[in-house]
Amino acid sequence: MARVNALAVLAAAALAATGPSTWLGSVLSLSKDGPSAFAQLGGGAAKAQTDVFKTDPEGFTRARFPPAEWPDRDFTICRLQYASVRSERDGSGWKTDYPYSEINLLIRFAQLTKTAISYDEEQRRPNTWVVKLTDAKLYDCPFLIASDVGTIGIKDVEVPPLREYLLKGGFLWVDDFWGSEAWTQWEQEISKVFPPEAYPIEDVSAADPIMREMFDLEKVPQITNVTFWLKNNGKTSEREEDSVQVHVRAIRDQHRRIMVLMTHNTDVGDSFERERESSDYSRLFSPPGYALGINVLLYAMTQ
User: Fold this and answer.
1) Is residue 1 part of a domain?
2) Is residue 125 part of a domain?
3) I need a labelling partner for 230 at 20 to 30 A (CA). Which of 39, 67, 190, 268 fits?
4) 239 within some domain
């Protein structure tokens, strides 16, 4: 797929001129009804669709587990359900950023690429699922995402399936964990799966293919949650001096394929999830957030 250098500029210009409610129609519209009709995003002149999740704030949304038979074999995102062994301020454990982060990312992914995504006609939204590491359905998930992993505890019984899933071609993106304590917790737990002597954690540079799949990205911005940003006059470091620097890191297999991507001291998921909540916030954070998200999905599908 050809890289798109101008599209991020175009999207940002459209956001600046019109706000996030109209860039859906004016910049990223589809040529068919499908995904353009299920947006949770504001939608310009389109009528709002029924949202079965709207009564459930983040942290209280019911988990949507895969059915016995997948509704189709199109692309989807699975969120990892894990047990938290500690807490983090403003976090909700595995439910953090669920479900709108992945719903909205899939909407944009369908609009900006030709990828067929799994779609629920009745609910008029993409299919996204929640899986446990001990669930056999894990191996049917093309892409796994987890947030607030500074609270995660990976049980002994969960280590072999996660390792096998990733070594066999699976992909895990962990995001939205802040500060040194959260990093230490995550590093300790993922080392159970991939001992650092054999699978070291590496920094990801701007020259890495994952940063160049569709959009050419020079860095990953620090994105905070919209509530923190509004209450703190545009500040983005949620743990003050302990989270000033964004880290983009990875664990690779023997062929140098990224298996685990880590975006630390940033909340890329909120740039998807919160797109409709503040036009100023979306203008700043949604275009670069989606650019990274789409790059990551394409990398996971093609490597």
Assistant:
1) no
2) yes
3) 39
4) yes
CA separation for the pair 68, 45 (Å, rounded): 38
User: 39 or 115: whose pLDDT is higher?
Assistant: 115
Please confirm whether the linkage preceding 57 is cis (ω < 30° from 0): no
**Looking at the 3D structure of the chain, how many domains does it have?**
1
What CATH number is attached to the domain comprising 105? Answer: 3.40.50.12140
Strand partners, 251: 260
Q: Is the pLDDT at 86 greater than 50, yes or no?
A: yes
pLDDT above 50 (res 55): no
pLDDT attached to residue 275: 80
- Measured distance CA(291)–CA(288) in Å, rounded: 5
Q: Give, in degrees to the nearest 5, the angle at Cα 30 between 29 and 33.
A: 120
What is this structure's pTM?
0.85
Give the domain range for residue 159. Answer: 6-302
- Rounded to 5°, the CA angle 251-295-242 comes to 55
Condensed to tens digits (0 to 9), the pLDDT of residues 169-197 reads 999 999 999 999 999 999 999 999 999 99
